[in-house]
Amino acid sequence: MQQVEAVAPITMRVRPRAPMSLAWIGVVPFFAFAALFLLVPTAYLVVGAFQDNDGHLTLANIAGLWEPGILSAYAISLEVSAASAILGAVFGFLLAWAVVLGGLPAWLRPILLTFSGVASNFAGLPLAFAFIATLGRTGLVTTVLQSVFGFSLYRNGFNILSFWGLTLTYLYFQIPLMVLILTPALDGLKREWREAATILGASPFTYWRYVVMPILWPSLLGTTLLLFANSFGAIATAYGLTGSTLNLVTILLYAQIRGDVLHNPHLGYALALGMVVITGLSNALYIVLRTRSERWLR
């Protein structure tokens, strides 16, 4: 008879679960901060925007956003943000290009980046006071131009409390922010690309037109959107500089929630919700464009 060999039973080995890395402890403060100061307040705004003073569900606050005064506030805020973002992107790109690819002395780069790191975080009431002391009616530059050159800024149409005055003030932190974000993108341009283009007979204009700009365009557009969101949500600088001269949505929001005359907190929540939607879309597009740009610059 044919003998049947016994087959040993198959045993499944359970891989031991790897212990959780202690490195997660380092990111706990980040998640806690994001939850307490970003997620929870945003959820509170969303709920409050659809409630009345008695806590009942309503769409009146959202409908109130279509009032002429509120639409005008959104329009002015969008215009100021767009103007400061576009101008900041243009001048910031030129500065970053000059120190990275323009052949300037190497010692200029650390000085510019250090200043950009400081200036990009200098905002609020100190920045407003600095520009009033410099370009106000009795400011240093205004006085010097009037006494030395006989030129009056205010008689020729300039006003620090106007649309362009606020835009100029925003450029103080918009341009440095553009420099900081765009410098790594310019550093990522490989020398081999320029050499290959030169060997193939491309002129400098052709190289920039068909090689550099298609690669940098997502970074340029994405950073411009980031600058737009950065200025759209600013309130301290605008309030300290112009007060109620300009009907900005941030100042209107402050008046609705904390003001003595205008006090409708739930309409303020709706205003804030609209701002969150606009800035959220801008930041989301920035992340998408930055991810696309990094694929070329790796």
Write a short abstract of this structure.
This is ABC transporter permease subunit. The chain has 298 residues and is mostly helical. The protein is built from twelve helices and no strands.
User: Oligomeric state of the chains?
Assistant: single chain
Q: What is the helix/strand order?
A: HHHHHHHHHHHH
How large is the share of residues in beta strands?
A: under 5%
Low-pLDDT segments, ≥5 res: none
What top-tier CATH class fits best? Mainly Alpha
First-last Cα distance: 70 Å
> Which architecture per CATH?
Orthogonal Bundle
- From the alpha-carbon coordinates, what is the Rg to the nearest angstrom? 27 Å
Major pleated sheet: none
Helix fraction? over 70%
Structural class per helix/strand content?
Answer: mainly alpha
Give the overall shape, derived from the CA principal axes.
Answer: globular
> Could you name the CATH homologous superfamily?
MetI-like
| Rounded average pLDDT | 84
CATH fold label: MetI-like fold
What's the domain count? 1
Q: Count helical runs.
A: 12
Number of strands: 0
